[in-house]
Amino acid sequence: MSTVAAYAAPAAKAPLERTTIERRPVGESDILIDIKFAGICHSDIHQAREGWGEAIFPMVPGHEIAGVVTEVGAGVTKYTVGDRVGVGCFVDSCRECEYCRQGLEQYCAKGNTATYNALDKNGEPTYGGYSTHVVVDENYAVRIPDSLSLDVAAPLLCAGITTYSPLRHWNAGPGKKVAVLGMGGLGHMGVKIAHAMGAEVTVLSQSLRKREDGLKLGADHYYATSDPKTFEELAGTFDIILSTVSAPLDFAAYLSLLKTDGALVNVGAPEEPVSLNLFALLGGRKTLAGSMIGGIAETQEMLDFCAEHGFGAEIELIRADQINEAYERVLASDVRYRFVIDTATI
Predict the structure, then answer these.
(1) Same domain, yes or no: 197 and 284
(2) Which of 290, 307, 337 is the endpoint of a domain?
(3) Could you give the dihedral angle defined by the CA atoms of residues 319, 268, 14 and 115, in that order, rounded to the nearest 10 degrees?
(4) Where is the Enoyl reductase (ER) domain (predicted)?
(5) How far is CA 161 from CA 49, 146, 272, 292, in A?
């Protein structure tokens, strides 16, 4: 075991504070990663404040991890010391079920092991990326292309793959009209990725405050959802609406913006239950769907895609002692567009 520095929430809704945690020894198939940067995801806040249900404390959040390999186990074949790697939302899965065999580890039938706020196969709690080092099985890390800076690559391990996976699955590309609902940490990546895939991209945001940013990032159009005329003008327009918001929606209103056979895909997860009148789905054979991150192979594909197209996340780099302030700013939608912790400051 090794003792490393970290920032942890000692209890639900408590401010995060500097502490130390134990990392397991480097096993046969493990790699030790010197974490350089860790993104702050809205889901970190949901979990640290038990918005999604009972959680495990103390909690070290963080599943947008970018760093460098500093030690490898005797059986490791994929990585060597000095490699630039990333770790996303999970660090293990059963490896045997039909979904794991298809590279869909995020949908593991037995449940994958989350990077934090979970118990590993030995019953020990997992701790995330708000720390200086992490030990993971080589099969659950991905390689970060040299052309991507580690700081802008870190958020791709959640925000990037969370938007890339559904856009690929629902065939975003030339000839498709894609709307991205919400222009935040997830939404800004959805805009970049959908644009790079060749789709015609529209941002649907509460206001026009971020319109200039959206157009710079690749949106063709930008509309305010606070304006009732938006729903009249855009009725029956989109093949795909990617909803990144974590608040309840008027689903009937947004489903009305889809073409026949269109899909409203949710990647944001509200803490409250939502309601739906099914007639909003029946007319037009529409789909209300959800998507959760991506598998390891698809995450690597996403990183390579972003590198090929020359972009990472839009970030604001912060010190570790600014984490609690950053949480409040995320809740106030005061970030363009992802906070990233410089873990050298932990």
Answers:
(1) yes
(2) 290
(3) -70
(4) 14-341
(5) 24, 18, 24, 9
Structural domain containing residue 177: 160-290
* Domains identified in the chain, total number: 2
Q: How far apart are CA 315 and CA 343, in angstroms?
A: 15
47 contacts: CB under 8 Å, gap ≥ 6: 55, 59, 61, 116, 117
**139 and 217 share a domain?**
no
Burial of 326 (0-12, 13-18, 19+ CB in 10 A): buried
Going from the first residue of the chain to its last (346 residues), give the mean pLDDT of each consecutive group of 10, the final group possibly shorter. Answer: 96 97 97 98 95 96 98 98 98 98 97 97 96 98 98 98 98 98 96 98 96 97 97 98 92 97 94 89 96 97 98 98 97 94 98
How far apart are the C-alpha atoms of 134 and 143, rounded to whole Å? 15
Both 13 and 144 in a single domain? yes
Which residues face 134 on adjacent strands? 33
Place of tokens 């700013």: 329
Residue 30 half-sphere exposure, CB side, CA atoms within 13 Å? 14
**Per-residue tokens: 297:** 């192979």
| Shared-domain flag, residues 171 and 100 | no
The reply to whether 28 and 134 lie within a common domain is yes
Distant-in-sequence, close-in-space partners of 198: CB < 8 Å, separation ≥ 6: 173, 174
